[in-house]
Amino acid sequence: MMMPSLAHKLACLILCILLLSKLHRCFGEEEAARSVLFEGDQPAIPLHDLRSAYAKLYQLLAGMKVQAQEVINIDAYGANSQGYQKAWNAVCSSSTPAILTVPEKKNYVLQPIAFSGPCKSSVTVMIKGSVEAPVDRSLWAGKRYWIMFSGVDNLSVGGGGVINGNGNVWWQNSCKIKKSSPCVDAPTALTFNGCKNLRVENLRIQNSQQIHVSFQSCSDVDVSHLSITAPGTSPNTDGIHVTETQSITISDSVIATGDDCISIVSGSANVMAKNIVCGPGHGISIGSLGSGNSQARVSDVTVDTARLSGTTNGVRIKTWQGGSGYAKNIVFKNIVMQNVKNPIIIDQNYCDSNKPCHEQGSAVEVGNVLYKNITGTSASEDAIALSCSKATPCHGIVLQDINLGHSTQSSCENAKWSKLGSVVPSPCTN
């Protein structure tokens, strides 16, 4: 007797589920239940229809390739950097979809490491335990990353575990904390470089050396359910940094750091951030752009539904004088501010330098920006501050349905704006 194939079993199962679901809706009513299968003395679903449906399902399922996933425990090759690299090589070279797991209830100290592609098939990394960085700064030898995935397409990273940068040893030696120290760049905890079709979700990332998560030159990215935390005094610890990346969605995440909760910089387009909780930190920023007289391009950015608490800025666009390019087609909407300094701010005269920044004859163009349904309280007198460039004034700025308190005010310089609905504080005159 020939054993039934997997496709045969699946086709029968699907047909049974369809019939049972219909019966379930009529459960407890005998006559109604009988009418599901019979109309008088004849079947309600003719036998030839069932046969036809089965034949179509069988053909479809028989043509599908059912692939088993290879699962590799990170301990399989030794709990050290060399072993971890071998474990990665195993999943990356697998001809079928592969999973690399970091077991729960275990703690791993991981030295700077790069997991590189391309890989033969899709890869899932499940971090269920805890991964932490060593405290010896000399181990980096100038590297700007701690954990990096580079050139890996069809990658998923998640698992609910912890990534701990042990950043305190870096913060206390930062020139922003220790004025006598030279200004040296610190590593980013988790870097994705040149990845396509990327999913990052359900991770707790804390106390990064500098930036917590960075997306560089990536596309088609889905980021969700991240918890990113560091002290509000920790320097340059951006939560999520987006650069040269297109088509990225960041959602349902809580970010509390010492710098921008989300920073979006040059080369980024089609960026969506939604359902974000931010604070402490420096708010949600586009920029900085145009430093060192550079060209910058950012477009089609939407921040929809966010709550900011106790941040030093709210939703901000910041550009240096002397730059070129644009930041355009930007929407900030459905945002609640709680005790936030500078809730709405455009700063085309940004200067994060020990030396004074002099007025220059060019600037990154800022245009077509909508602020809609933004409410709450401001910790600064100026709730709306539009400080735009004399050389390249910002334009197409729309303020719609804003309420940040009657005790606040607006300030504007070289800004071309319009108002829709009620706006509190009243927009300033140009």
Automatic annotation (TrEMBL):
Catalytic activity of the protein: (1,4-alpha-D-galacturonosyl)n+m + H2O = (1,4-alpha-D-galacturonosyl)n + (1,4-alpha-D-galacturonosyl)m
Active site residues according to the UniProt entry: 282
Example GO biological process: fruit dehiscence
Alphabetical keyword list: Cell wall, Cell wall biogenesis/degradation, Glycosidase, Hydrolase, Secreted, Signal
Cellular localisation: Secreted, Cell wall
SMART domains named among the record's database cross-references: PbH1
Highest taxon of source: Eukaryota
GO MF terms held by the record: polygalacturonase activity
Major subcellular location class: secreted
First and last residue of the signal peptide: 1-28
EC number: 3.2.1.15
InterPro entries reported in the protein's UniProt record: Glyco_hydro_28, PbH1, Pectin_lyas_fold, Pectin_lyase_fold/virulence
Protein name: endo-polygalacturonase
Family: Belongs to the glycosyl hydrolase 28 family.
Major enzyme class: hydrolase
